[in-house]
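User: Okay, second chain of the day. Same drill as before: sequence in, structure tokens out.
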Amino acid sequence: MYRPLTVKLNRRGHKKYSVFNVVVTSGETDRKGGFIEVIGFVNPQYTERQIYIDSQRLAIWLNRGAQVHPSVAKYIYLAATSFHTYNKNKNKNKILKLI
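Assistant: Same drill. Structure tokens below.
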């Protein structure tokens, strides 16, 4: 059975200090499994979250049929807008429409 490509978070860092890579994986890999390409990173530890997602590489993978995990969609939305106007409950539908 064919499983599509997914864009999801891959945890790295150490205990109680989580940092995430934004990776493209095939559907068969598990959470800690291999990935095809790293297209960004997220560091949620600071008050001003450090988010970097390569938009050109993301667009290429979306055109190839990759599906975006909802947690990554949230960070794409945060990277595209200002951090101060983000309201999780209010903008939930906008995040899903973005992807």
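The mean pLDDT is 77.

User: Thanks, on to the next one.
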